[in-house]
Design brief:
Length: about 350
């Protein structure tokens, strides 16, 4: 809060002086800019000191660059229409560790391109449901791990000005889940809290089972590393919400075209700790794979079983895709340099 205003800003965790005296930490903190992304008026202050703020304009601003993304996709000319962009109070969700807000943002263009024409009833106006998540930072106790590029993973980079002379000031932390053995001294041990991924209930069978099976392959890697029962895959429980930060989710999304698949993570920028893994798989990709296999062996083989059945081959490919995208969401990048295949 600054006077009669409340500001929203992105803190800058990239520059620090870890474990240094307070004066050194303040010097590193104050030397680099934060990013103020919104300011709003304080509407009311309650007797116990709480304040009331209308965050509608924060939610309806183009904070994630929708217009730029449309332009990069060949849909130039779209601009946010403030009068048709509304924060939706009815869409607010409150979970133990995150708050979810939603706004309907409408963008207009007099020259819509083929992609928007294919999916919007009025291609000159396209409306998105844009969500904002306020996520509780993890509890203390996580031990960051220095990143080794040979692992082929993702990392979080920081500059530590408290590093002694002769040591690297640039440090990279491996992006990973907090995974702790119940017996840290044992070569093999159960874990305190396993990593659990949940498959979207919207995925139909036999696709759902293929997603569960493929993602479950990761347990073999954790088991080989001595972490017993560390990785599990289940179907999202009835009534559970995939927006709840406590659930790592493999989402199933219907699309008009094949689209890409994604494996991402919500990461603590201070340490590299993964808070949530999120996978997004498009529904048409498996069908495109099936069409390719039908072109190779013939559509008459559908449902025959065996290695030349396009349906079975497509499901096998989907198991691989499930494991692949989950790999991204637990911290691994494409690691072609380490491939054993020529």
């Amino acid at each position: 809060r600054i006077g009669r205003k409340v500001v929203a800003e992105f803190e800058n965790h990239k520059f620090r002086a870890a474990r240094a005296p307070e004066a050194e930490q303040a010097a590193a903190r104050d030397a680099f800019s934060v990013s103020t992304v919104w300011a709003g008026d304080v509407l009311e202050t309650t007797p116990d000191g709480r304040i009331v703020v209308d965050i509608g304009s924060f939610l309806t601003r183009d904070g994630i660059g929708v217009a730029d993304a449309l332009k990069q996709a060949g849909e130039a000319g779209y601009k946010l229409v403030p009068d048709l962009s509304i924060a939706d109070p009815g869409a607010v969700k409150v979970f133990p560790e995150n708050l979810e807000f939603e706004a309907r943002q409408t963008y207009a263009s007099d020259t819509p391109g083929p992609e928007v024409r294919n999916i919007a009833p009025d291609p000159k106006l396209i409306t998105f449901e844009v969500r904002h998540s306020l996520v509780k930072l993890p509890e203390p106790g996580y031990q960051p791990r220095l990143f080794d590029p040979r692992t082929g993973g993702f990392s979080t980079m920081v500059l530590d000005y408290a590093a002694p002379l002769g040591e690297e000031i640039v440090q990279r932390y491996a992006n990973r889940f907090r995974l702790e053995k119940t017996d840290p001294t044992a070569a093999r041990s159960p874990v305190k809290k396993p990593i659990v991924f949940y498959v979207d209930r919207a995925a139909p069978e036999p696709i759902r089972s293929a997603l569960v099976e493929g993602a479950s392959w990761w347990n073999q890697a954790f088991d080989a590393a001595g972490f017993e029962g560390a990785f599990q895959v289940k179907v999202l429980p009835e009534g559970a919400d995939p927006l709840d930060i406590r659930y790592n989710v493999i989402n199933w999304v219907d699309r008009a075209t094949r689209g890409w698949s994604y494996g991402q993570a919500v990461v603590d920028p201070r340490t590299g700790e993964i808070v949530k893994g999120s996978v997004l798989l498009g529904a048409l990709r498996v069908r495109q794979d099936m069409l390719i296999f039908e072109g190779l062996v013939g559509a008459h083989r559908n449902g025959t079983g065996g290695p030349n059945d396009p349906i079975q081959v497509s499901l096998a490919r989907l198991r691989q895709l499930s494991a692949h995208e989950v790999g991204h969401s637990i911290g691994f990048a494409h690691n072609f340099a380490a491939s054993t295949q020529d």
